[in-house]
Amino acid sequence: MKEVKVSPEELKNIIDNSKIIGSGFFGTVFTYKDHLIKLDKSLFKLLDINDIRFAKELIEDHYKYSDQREDFNDRDQIEYLSNHQKDIKYTKLPEGIVTLKEVNSKVNGISPGIIIPYHKDHQKLEKLSKKDYQKVLIVLKNLLLAVKELADNRIAQEDLIEANSKKRDKYNVLFKETTPQIIDLSGDLVAEGEYFINAKEMYNQLGHIIFNFIDNQDIKKEELTSFEENKELLEEFARKISK
């Protein structure tokens, strides 16, 4: 697992010279060299709007007075995921953590963020045109293989459909040409190793994604919780569009 140790001033400089890629409820994602950093959102805001002279004080006060007094992410989870990258070819997993140095003894070594792959020139899966049936079929078949590979390695991404998606139409999946890429692979909605029970929820969400793309087809909708059921649905979709 990679570890990037940064002083408050170094972290401030990284933020000032980066490009924000996105921001969720807990974290802000921004560029870092050829990678991305997902950082504690509240800490990012503090450093972003203040002068570098106050960086050390801001960080120490953040961990002294806020609710966030420990690692932003579970480093055991990140280590498990990064160590299993060698076994996984369809999905890029988190690569490591960012830790703090040159602060007080209570803050030194705390991790405020993680290092994740940068999927440049990818689009959100929901931008894939439903009318391009052949491309939809290929992308979804590849996504099914990616999900199966995660499950085979005792990893379940239970947030394939974003948790805050009111219409269940926003996904933690990107694509480039016909290659999908599952993202947001850390946090409470990712189960790995000893915390992995089964992949039913991940396959169920995948089933909903598939149905959302083929809802203009005369195919029966039902709950899908396995590789075989999703594979059968895609095979039926392939038969429909070949007629």
Mind explaining what this structure looks like?
The protein has 243 residues and is α+β, with helices and mostly antiparallel strands. It has helices at residues 8-16, 41-49, 55-65, 75-83, 133-152, 200-213, 227-242, and strands at residues 2-6, 20-23, 27-32, 35-40, 96-100, 113-117, 123-124, 155-157, 173-176, 179-182, 190-192. Strand 2 and strand 3 (27-32) form a beta hairpin.
Order of helices and strands: EHEEEHHHEEEHEEEEHH
The strand count comes to 11
Unreliable stretches covering 5 or more consecutive residues = none
- Range of strand content: 15-25%
- Please outline the major beta sheet: 6 strands, mixed
Radius of gyration: 20 Å
* Derived structural class: alpha+beta
Comma- or semicolon-separated keywords:
three-stranded antiparallel β-sheet; six-stranded mixed β-sheet; single chain; alpha+beta; 243 residues; elongated; 11 strands
Would you spell out the secondary-structure blueprint of this structure?
Layout: E1 2-6, H1 8-16, E2 20-23, E3 27-32, E4 35-40, H2 41-49, H3 55-65, H4 75-83, E5 96-100, E6 113-117, E7 123-124, H5 133-152, E8 155-157, E9 173-176, E10 179-182, E11 190-192, H6 200-213, H7 227-242
Parallel strand pairs: 1-5
Antiparallel strand pairs: 2-3, 3-4, 4-6, 5-6, 7-9, 8-11, 9-10
Helix pairs in contact: 5-6, 5-7, 6-7
Give a short overview:
This protein has 243 residues and is of the alpha+beta class. Helix content is 36%, strand content 19%.
